[in-house]
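USER:
Before I trust my own judgement here, I would like a peer's view. Write it directly below this note and I will take it from there.

ASSISTANT:
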Amino acid sequence: MRLVDYLDKGISVAADQACLTTGEESLTYREVGDLSGRIASALVARGVEPGASVAILSANDPVAFATVFGISRAGAVWCPVNPRNEAAENRELLERFDCEVLVHQAAFTGLVDAIAPDLPGLHTIVCLDGERDGSHPWADFLAGGQEPVDRHEPDDIAMIVGTGGTTGRPKGVVLTHQNLETMTALTLMGYPIGERPVYLAVAPLTHAAGVLCFPMLVSGGEIVIARTPDVDAILDLVPRHGVTHLFLPPTLVYMLLDAPALDTTDLSSLRCFWYGAAPMSVARLTEAIDRVGPVMAQLFGQTEAPMMLTMLPPDEHVDEDGAPIPSRLSSAGRAAPLVTLAIVDEHGVHQPTGERGEIVVRSSLVMRGYYRDPEATAAATIDGWHRTGDIGYLDEERYLHIVDRAKDMIITGGFNVYSAEVEQALMRHPAVQDCAVVGRPDERWGERVVAVVQLRPGRVVDPSELRSFVRAEIGGVKAPKELHLWDDLPRSKVGKVVKPDVRARLDADPATPG
């Protein structure tokens, strides 16, 4: 299925029902379908051929998301561009992905001004909601379309997604229609979707929030688009729209749990509250099950294999009596039905149950490769398996436990210390809001374990107390030798803690640790 086929399926079952809602305004399925056709026709009139790359630079917006389906209907390739990227990164992405058309919101005119002059291959720039010198106004762009267009080439590339660039030059992940169809099928197979779901898209539609829309569309569901990731807005929108499905990264889940209005907000409409994109504290997940309800649902994937490598649906979080199962909560779930997963050592040798190694997978979920980068594509594969770059192990019940990114493992005094294990221990302390653990050079130990902690609002704690707490939890070898208290942690555009930035700040900051 093409991306637009999910919309067309929704039209067939809910043509006059709300499809995309923002604020008090909604577009029905029929209206979004008609708009996608006009966008496709306008793109073709501008010379866009099948397989050409079209970029969207926008915050969460219903018309911008409808443009995704117009791009697909024209047989072109969607290139989501995050407006929170630096100008240089976005310019590089548009150039590397051979983008011919850029659709942008007026709010990002300055960013477009900064990058457009260096992109001669960009022959058409369109402004969704205002004016910019050199951009076609949205109405004029649509008026340029002629005959209806519906290019059906389902086996071609669906989208090219930048990897983010937090650890070097960003790469372009090539996702096919089959990749996204597999992801959609797994979502429908593994989680409670039900009739007429209402999905609240809070995270950027350029990332997880966007691709999770597709299974909602085939079910004729409504997508409520939050323009900004605001906790108060979430607590207002869920009861107002009867939201059934929600995805948040752990950072926002923690903020939601700390919101004063949480316990007085009616969240009974929720069927499935996904969390993912980073490890989550078991202690806070247990709290979420208690306060939000038995609706928490984990998913683990990566840009190269979107969302559904492993799955932990709500009913697997708890036992027959509804009590959380700690050993499950510390896992990322089990391999999805259409995914084969294994653990290998540095030589590619498969490891037995309980042994740690790199997580590798085989699935139609896995990307075609990195755009025009055969060397990086080859490096991501070992004996036909996709290398995730994550370290983990499988327990006796085949639940996957992720212990670290391969590049983040700390070797101190000859012992391997996995930062995720130390972070989990820190998160069990009631004063800790979030944290990051990294290794730093040490003359005696080779590397020493260093923790940076963000406390919950209004909490005060001495760093030595936190170090003692971790020592009691997991032992002295793994306990931080340094511990810093920061007001906030450096984060990526989707809320993940950026450890290279943590290391850089530690190197530049002469402050004495606790």
About this structure: Residues 29-45 form the longest helix (17 residues). The two ends are 55 Å apart (CA to CA). DSSP finds 17 helices and 27 strands in the chain.
